[in-house]
Amino acid sequence: MRTKEELAGITLLGDRQTKYPDTYAPGILETFLNKHPENEYLVTFHCPEFTTLCPLTGQPDFAEIVISYIPRERMVESKSLKLYLFSFRNHGDFHEDCVNIIMKDLVKLMDPRYLEVIGKFTPRGGISIRPFANYADAEHQALKASRLQAHMEEALR
């Protein structure tokens, strides 16, 4: 069980009066200490109901967002991540921008060993877009390159 000190920065989890942000809100993200920083392990989040707006038409765009990372000292708290992703609902940006913004915000927040974000956007106008963005520290550059290569090969199938 975690101590009160270990949970000190967690304010959203357990709050029964959650307020959903109506604008892009990276400041809502919260972290907690990784109790196993000596281990390299993967954490993956699936958000099948991500919504954002086209920056030109204002029409909604829908996607599944998949975030995977190898933590270092800090980890993202899942409820704050849910609210952060919800904050894109009224945010007007291209699919590629959203995926890169999410990646950069999470890297800044946690300083992970490795992190990737995949956007599986539903087709609009007969075209679906699947942006992929990843980050790696100096020790994980080979993983970064291999994951990018794998996504490139998958896109060509």
Question: Topology, pairings included?
Answer:
Layout: E1 31-33, E2 43-53, E3 60-70, E4 74-76, H1 78-86, H2 95-110, E5 114-121, E6 132-136, H3 141-155
Antiparallel strand pairs: 1-4, 2-3, 3-5, 5-6
CATH topology: GTP Cyclohydrolase I, domain 2
- CATH homology group: GTP cyclohydrolase I, C-terminal domain/NADPH-dependent 7-cyano-7-deazaguanine reductase, N-terminal domain
The helix-and-strand class reads alpha+beta
Low-pLDDT windows of residues:
none
> What is the CATH first-level class name?
Alpha Beta
Q: Could you give the order of the helices and strands?
A: EEEEHHEEH
CATH architecture: 2-Layer Sandwich
What order do the strands of the largest sheet run in, or round the barrel if closed? 2-3-5-6
* Subunit arrangement of the protein: single chain
The tally of helices reads 3
According to DSSP, the number of beta strands is: 6
**General form:** flat
Number of domains: 1
Strand content: 25-35%
